[in-house]
TrEMBL record:
Protein name: Type II secretion system protein GspF domain-containing protein
UniProt main location, coarse: membrane
Topology class, membrane: Multi-pass membrane protein
Keyword annotations of the record: Cell membrane, Membrane, Transmembrane, Transmembrane helix
Family annotation (InterPro entries): T2SS_GspF_dom, T2SS_GspF_sf
Lineage per the UniProt record: Bacteria, Pseudomonadati, Pseudomonadota, Gammaproteobacteria, Alteromonadales
Record-linked PANTHER family: INTEGRAL MEMBRANE PROTEIN-RELATED, PILUS ASSEMBLE PROTEIN
Entry keyword Membrane: yes
Transmembrane regions listed in the UniProt entry: 46-77, 207-231
Biological source species: Pseudidiomarina marina
Amino acid sequence: MKVSLLKRGLNALLNALPENLTSTITRLAQQSVPEQSPSEWLLHRILVVLTILLIVSLPIGSLIKLSVLLPLAIVVIERRNRRQVYLKKVLRQWPSALDMVAMLMHSGLSFRAALHALQNIPNDLSAATEISRLHRLQQSGYSLHQAVDGLSHRIPHPWISLFAGAVLQAHQTGGALANTLKVQANQFRQQQLLEAEKRAQEVSVKLMLPLIFCFFPVTMLLILGPVFIGFTQGGVI
């Protein structure tokens, strides 16, 4: 009950804030993993700040304060790392999700109907979930431009920007979006292959460091060690 009252108060506070600040808070809440409402995001941040201020102001030893603040810092870092892992997962699955949307549109569905069908298809693709989220936002009253803009802010990457631009351009001009998404999927998949080949080529270079500083000295010791011992004993073995 108290939490719901706090959320209502925060919602009223968000409505009273300037539009730019409210939109910033909304965007940050959408970018969180898992996604939060603006009031939940703001409540979480307020509780974190109040907790830090309370711990710092308590008349206790610095070691105790550090032992309490350290787990809190670990939680914050873990949440940030979780978002980075989620973003990498979405980008890795993005070409497959675009293929699914293009296939649905080639079957005769409109873009919005394809999003609705994608939402109902059982799959474990986080990228497909992000795309179908456009349909949920439109059902909630957002325009297509607002929904696509929200996706671009939630997943800040050039691939998402290209997808957003293609969707808006097709919506305005009535162009063939299915073919564009298919082309984008092939291009992005090709880029992923090139990046994988680049990382594979970098492995040999990265292996040079442990080879030089770990294996090479041991090998030289095994080869030259008996020779050195022979010299120190007055002869060559």
